[in-house]
Automatic annotation (TrEMBL):
Protein name: Glycine cleavage system H protein
Family: Belongs to the GcvH family.
Origin: domain of life: Eukaryota
Biological role: The H protein shuttles the methylamine group of glycine from the P protein to the T protein.
Organism from which the protein derives: Aspergillus oryzae (strain ATCC 42149 / RIB 40) (Yellow koji mold)
Length: 173
């Protein structure tokens, strides 16, 4: 039986290595290869609904626990500021009110306060920004958040803009 396998193996490898015209026609895009309904649509993610924006270009993302949220500046703000050279972080345990400064961002062009979108207590700061302020330019709405706040009243988030409404305000600027 091993003699048969040895004689068939070279032939099989040659056939399998050839590009057959039919092979290209049979290729299916990865999205259609999944069973219907199993492809995740990220725009429908519940976490996207928890991210809100202010007209002064800050964002806040409520955590799944509904009690804590991360705050940062938007991509538009980071781009407008240019190269960030310094980030002033808030003190941990500081009480903040909605619309009150929770930090500041300085760039080669200008400096700007970062206002808290909601009232609460600062429970954590992004210490990466102390040593690498320009990280804000790399990931302003991702890992370069400025502070984590324990939200006093989650209903304050209702007064903020969703992503679509925020983008509409950018058309004015």
């Amino acid at each position: 039986m091993s003699a048969i396998a040895r004689s068939v193996r070279p032939f099989a490898s040659r056939v399998l290595s050839q590009k057959l015209p039919l092979a290209a026609a049979c290729r299916v895009s990865p999205a259609t290869a999944f069973p219907r309904g199993s492809v995740r649509n990220f725009s429908q993610s519940p976490f996207m609904e928890l991210k809100k924006y202010t007209e002064s270009h800050e964002w806040i993302e409520l955590a799944a626990d509904g009690k804590t949220a991360k705050v940062g500046i938007t991509e538009y703000a980071a781009h407008s500021l240019g190269d960030v050279v310094f980030v002033e972080l808030p003190e941990v345990d500081a009480e903040v009110s909605a619309g009150e400064p929770v930090g500041a961002v300085e760039s080669v062009k200008s400096a700007s306060d970062v206002n808290s979108p909601v009232s609460g207590k600062v429970i954590n700061v992004n210490s990466i920004l102390e040593d690498k302020a320009k990280f804000i330019n790399e990931s302003p709405e991702g890992d370069a958040w400025i502070a984590e706040i324990e939200v006093k009243d989650a209903s304050e988030l209702d007064n903020l803009l969703d992503a679509k409404a925020y983008k509409e305000t950018l058309g004015d600027e």
